[in-house]
Amino acid sequence: MTMTAEIDVLVVGHMTADLVPGGKMLGGTVSYAAPTYAAFGRRVGVLTSAAYDESLLNHLLPFGKVVSLPASSSLTYENVYSDRGRQQFVRATACNIRYGDVPNAWVDVPYVHLGPLAAELEPLEMARNFQNATVMLTLQGLMRQWGEDGLVRFRPWFDAEALRLIDIVIYSQEDIQQYPQLTEKLRDACKHLVVTNGRNGGTYYNSGEAIRYASADVIPLDLTGAGDVFAASLLGVLPFVDDDVPKAVRIAGRLAAYSVTRSGVDSAPTSEEISREVKRFQGG
After folding, report:
1. Dihedral through CA 42, CA 137, CA 87, CA 259, nearest 10?
2. Angle separating helix axes 245-259 and 226-237, nearest 10 degrees
3. d(Cα 39, Cα 270) in Å, to the nearest integer?
4. What are phi and psi of 185, to 5 degrees?
5. Burial code of 134-145, b = ≥16 C-beta within 10 A, e = fewer?
6. Quick check: 145 and 152 in contact, CB under 8 A?
7. Measured distance CA(84)–CA(26) in Å, rounded
8. pLDDT (tens digit, 9 = 90+) per residue, 132-147?
């Protein structure tokens, strides 16, 4: 007898406690993805790790089920701005996340979003155990390393076996500024690869073909989380477009643009925006 998962989409990765003037604010891929999936009517499960008394997790509870591996601290980032531009620092980390931490009721989930922020999960392990699901990886958190000073530096990541098992890989042009040739390497290894480029839209790669997609013309208020909203919109809309990835990419590009006109969890698309954009692209 096959068990049915109690969720429709599983999001795995650290939430973050981002240091800002006056305190901390919730961040991280899971924090923007969960409300986005909920807006699509998906039953959401979040698997994360945070400090055992992390109050910021309460902000995610309205959007789905949350399982947090208790840690001595939450993943904490601080952005420091100077004449040299922005420098990002890791001030504290949480626990690594393994497939064995996935609740039994979630293992048959049809859609999985791997959203590491500090290399806290192993994509190959996850992909091997979710071979009956559509698995998407947002790559940015695997391309980070830091030393005792906490300063985040770029590190290249490539795992051919993991990429063979993962259905969709997404990262931004900004993520690979120090290693632009990574795209050429990944486009041949990935089933579906998307490289986002902010208000310029981005490029979708499939079977050696590069297809440009557009954004939408909006007045931005807050760019934070736009890439996470894009990724979650892409995976979230797939059931509405018969798993047509190129169509989902174009819809996600427009929904991500709308997200920058709002802040925080409010940046998730509205049901009206989702309905309008799905109808816009239903014909092709």
Report:
1. -30
2. 140
3. 6
4. -75, -40
5. bbbbbbbbbbbe
6. yes
7. 26
8. 999 999 999 999 999 9
- Residue 217 per-residue DSSP state: -
Taking a C-beta distance cutoff of 8 angstroms, is the pair 20, 55 a contact?
no
Q: Which two tokens stand for residue 264?
A: 């925080």
Whether the Cβ atoms of residue 229 and residue 256 lie closer than 8 Å to each other? yes
Q: Which residue has the tokens 């155990």?
A: 129
* φ, ψ (nearest 5 deg) of residue 39: -65, -25
User: In whole angstroms, what is the distance from residue 67 CA to residue 45 CA?
Assistant: 8
> What is the Cα–Cα distance from 26 to 136, expressed in whole angstroms?
22
Beta-bridge mates of residue 144? 154
Which ranges of the chain have pLDDT less than 50? 1-2
C-alpha span between 154 and 198 (Å, rounded): 20
Best CA proximity match to 50, nearest among 77, 25, 23, 69: 69
Under 8 Å between Cβ of 144 and 118: yes
- pLDDT, residue 222, reads 86
User: How many C-beta atoms lie closer than 10 Å to residue 168's C-beta?
Assistant: 23
Pairing verdict, β 75-82 and 65-71: unpaired
- Kindly give, in sequence order, each residue whose CB lies less than 8 Å from that of residue 41, ignoring residues fewer than 6 positions away: none
For residues 54 and 17, what is the distance between their CA atoms, to the nearest angstrom? 9
In contact, 138 and 163? CB cutoff 8 Å? no
pLDDT tens, residue by residue, 237-262: 999 999 999 999 999 999 999 999 99
